[in-house]
Design brief:
It is built from 8 helices and 7 strands; from the N terminus they run αααββαββαααβαββ. With about 230 residues, the protein is of the alpha+beta class. The strands form 3 sheets. The protein has a 3-stranded antiparallel β-sheet with strand order 1-4-3. It has a two-stranded parallel ribbon with strand order 2-5. Helix 1 runs antiparallel to helix 2. The longest helix has 26 residues.
């Protein structure tokens, strides 16, 4: 039996041990937990770290060397909204993000990032088409990046409205996991551009219809989209 299956078995036993309706069964479950931990040399710390899961997005940008600042900000916003940590990595195939957290947080982050990054890329491309043709290419890029930053700022405000504050224990668990389990990927480069206040405001306006909700009735689901 591999370690992950043993840990899953221990988690099921923990649920039985926490059942206050049957003290006898709970006591048996506790003894089985201790026996498994001793037999397989598992520590309490390992059991805690096993709660952390990872999910990696599909490609969210074609950039292979430097990550646009607005995209990096979007990833961090989404990670915070679902009590996760984010690692952004670039490769020849493009930019992806990996989220670490307690289930279903990383899965929700993956979905939210793929959807919102796609929406943002389309909104940014559409905005470039509205700019006068005589504007230099570099200036258009700066204007579009400012638009995207504004878009992300509005998305961040919506995310903060639904974001629970992670407990100190959960934050420490995530820190420990990243320190012990994640291989360093080096400092990631980000690209920034000159800010254009009007363009940023256009981005904020464009993102007003973006919806980011946890779901209802305690269901672990995520709603993303635009208002009708």
């Amino acid at each position: 039996m591999d370690k992950q299956k043993i840990i899953e078995r221990i988690e099921k036993l923990k649920a039985m041990a926490n059942d206050k309706t049957s003290p006898h069964e709970a006591a048996i479950a506790l003894r089985r937990i201790q026996k498994l931990m001793d037999k397989h040399n598992l520590s309490s710390e390992e059991l805690e770290l096993a709660k952390i899961k990872e999910e990696t997005t599909d490609r969210i940008s074609r950039n292979r060397r430097a990550i646009p600042e607005y995209l990096s900000n979007l990833v961090v916003v989404i990670a915070n909204a679902f009590e996760c940590r984010a690692l952004i990595h670039t490769a020849y195939s493009g930019t992806r993000a990996t989220f670490c957290g307690i289930h279903p947080g990383p899965l929700l982050c993956k979905y939210a990032t793929e959807v919102l990054a796609s929406q943002l890329a389309k909104a940014r491309a559409d905005y470039i088409k509205t700019l006068p043709c005589y504007i230099p290419s570099r200036t258009k890029t700066d204007a579009a990046n400012s638009f995207a930053m504004g878009w992300v700022l509005t998305a961040a405000e919506k995310a903060n409205a639904i974001s629970p504050k992670a407990s100190v224990e959960k934050q420490k668990l995530l820190d420990d996991y990243i320190e012990k389990e994640i291989q360093p990927i080096g400092e990631q480069r980000t690209t920034s551009s000159k800010g254009f206040a009007d363009c940023m405001q256009d981005g904020r306006e464009a993102a007003k219809d973006v919806q980011l909700n946890h779901g209802v009735d305690g269901q672990e689901q995520l709603k993303i989209g635009a208002t009708a």
